[in-house]
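Late entry, evening session. Most of the bench is empty. Finally got around to the prediction I had been postponing all week. Sequence below, unchanged from the version circulated by S.P.
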Amino acid sequence: MKILVKNIIKDYPLDFIFSNIRKIQKMKILVIGDAIVDQYHYCEGMDRSRKSNVVVQKYISEESFAGGSLAVANHLAGLSDNVTLLTVTGADDLFNGFIKGAIAPKVKVHNFVREDAPTIIKKRFVSSGQKLFE
């Protein structure tokens, strides 16, 4: 990452970079995409099961993050005050709960509810800092 930043600064003067960031601040930005909830389930390895040949994990905790178009809109809201998100969620009530609270206050949201599908949730199971599966 440091090499990339050094190359950008070498190739482009700082006033050019900052003037382009100021241009982004004035843009109207539209993000279109699926709302995704990224869930991380943290666990700790235990001994193998005595009943079958599987790895046993002890549940520790979990965290949920705004993913997909939600994450993109949130990041862009850090650069512009005029971000609109056009997204779709499932008929489950996740939008009114977690997702609504996870969107940056500056983002204007137009949500469409798809009655025949749930909101997309990506679950990842992590043990000792390594993803086991998702």
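Two things to note before I forget:
The two ends are 27 Å apart (CA to CA).
The CA atoms of residues 60 and 103 lie 26 Å apart.
Will write this up properly tomorrow.
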